[in-house]
């Protein structure tokens, strides 16, 4: 099993839902999976077992989740596969679900059972044919490059006033700004929120400078724990986060100072915690998905170290994943951003030049995030990587992220 979550944003670039994309097998190991064999076991909806096993709160916090269904899996016994609140699941149909009685009856039954419904990959030319299907939909995914939104707004508001429009393939900030200005869409999906910065701002805010100083201290080969503790003491938010972390790890510790709390963690754990907590704080003025992306990449990269035969570089992989969006965080090109923090030559080569072993892991992660399953499968074959180890690495990173922000 492979699975990943792709965010959907509102007009304020706040995440409102996730699309869960999953694949059961490696298509390169079993080419027939791309043909009729892809329907084997189709009664089990890929993704529902993940939600059931992990819990929807671990997976997506308070956000709804879109789960793909097709003309066969639509008839699966969804209730037995997943006991989550029906309203939190949005069943995302593709155009194999036809405007025929058996499909329409099934959609009506699911709707009556409390599920939300969505449609994707429906050509404009078939809108009229799909009238009875679309009347049951809560959302429709539209490729904004292939549709005139001014006409779409009029069409949907008149015929389907309750359907919400979702713009997909929004891959630049300019596209997002134009779509938001024109109006009509409720949700936006694409990579517009993480486009690399090509020209930096002249100054970095004083608060961020303080955080960068702390990063540089702890990423020295043998950093001074007390000096790090003193810098943490300058920031109330970090002090609170540190005390919460220590309190979760110890019982009746009787912490008397910030230095004492730092000493309770020890140098190794303090270094990892600071890199994680400070990066999160640096993202405070960015879309919340940037924080999530940075932290999940860090843990996912660390977890993938054994699969890539790089167990000795797990800490370096963690840091590479963490800093892979540093250009977004500091509003500077990646080379300028990395000039401000102390990182290894391997990390610089991976993030700036896309070279070296670390870069191979980052490339794998980026394809995984996009649900580019064929490329992910190809790389797993070349490296003899087991699918389950990748899936477990990703799921563990989701659980780690949840626990990181546990109260």
TrEMBL record:
Q: Which residues form the HDOD domain?
A: 204-389
Query: What Pfam families does the annotation carry?
Result: HDOD
The superkingdom listed in its UniProt entry is Bacteria
- PROSITE patterns recorded: HDOD
Name of this chain's protein = HDOD domain-containing protein
Source organism: Suilimivivens aceti
């Amino acid at each position: 099993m492979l699975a990943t979550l792709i965010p959907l944003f509102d007009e304020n670039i706040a995440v409102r839902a996730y699309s869960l994309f999953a694949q059961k097998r490696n298509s390169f190991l079993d080419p027939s999976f791309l043909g009729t064999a892809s329907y084997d076991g189709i009664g089990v909806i890929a993704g529902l077992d993940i939600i059931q096993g992990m819990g929807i709160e671990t997976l997506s916090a308070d956000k709804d989740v879109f789960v793909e269904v097709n003309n066969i899996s639509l008839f699966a016994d969804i209730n037995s596969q997943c006991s989550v609140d029906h309203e939190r699941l949005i069943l995302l149909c593709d155009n194999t679900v036809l405007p025929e009685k058996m499909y329409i009856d099934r959609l009506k039954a699911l709707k009556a059972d409390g599920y939300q419904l969505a449609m994707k990959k429906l050509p404009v030319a078939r809108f009229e044919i799909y009238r009875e299907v679309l009347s049951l939909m809560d959302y429709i995914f539209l490729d904004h490059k292939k549709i005139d939104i001014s006409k779409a707004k009029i069409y949907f508001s008149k015929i389907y006033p309750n359907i919400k429009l979702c713009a997909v393939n929004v891959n630049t900030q300019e596209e997002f700004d134009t779509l938001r200005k024109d109006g009509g869409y409720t949700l936006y999906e694409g990579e517009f929120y993480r486009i690399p910065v090509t020209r930096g701002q002249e100054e970095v805010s004083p608060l961020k400078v303080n955080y960068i100083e702390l990063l540089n201290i702890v990423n020295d080969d043998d950093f001074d724990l007390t000096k790090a503790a003193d810098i943490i003491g300058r920031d109330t938010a970090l002090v609170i986060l540190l005390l919460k972390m220590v309190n979760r790890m110890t019982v009746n510790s009787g912490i008397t100072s910030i230095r004492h709390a730092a000493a309770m963690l020890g140098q190794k754990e303090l270094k990892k915690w600071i890199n994680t907590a400070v990066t999160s704080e640096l993202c405070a003025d960015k879309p919340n998905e940037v924080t999530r992306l940075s932290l999940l990449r860090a843990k996912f990269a660390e977890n993938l170290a054994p699969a890539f035969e790089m167990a000795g570089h797990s800490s370096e992989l963690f840091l590479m994943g963490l800093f892979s969006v540093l250009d977004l965080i500091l509003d500077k090109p990646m080379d300028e951003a990395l000039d401000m923090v102390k990182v290894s030559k391997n990390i610089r080569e991976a993030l700036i030049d896309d070279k070296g072993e670390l870069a191979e892991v980052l490339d794998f992660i980026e394809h995984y995030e996009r649900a580019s399953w064929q490329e992910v499968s190809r790389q797993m074959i070349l490296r003899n990587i087991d699918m389950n180890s990748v899936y477990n690495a990703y799921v563990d990173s989701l659980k780690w992220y949840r626990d990181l922000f546990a109260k």
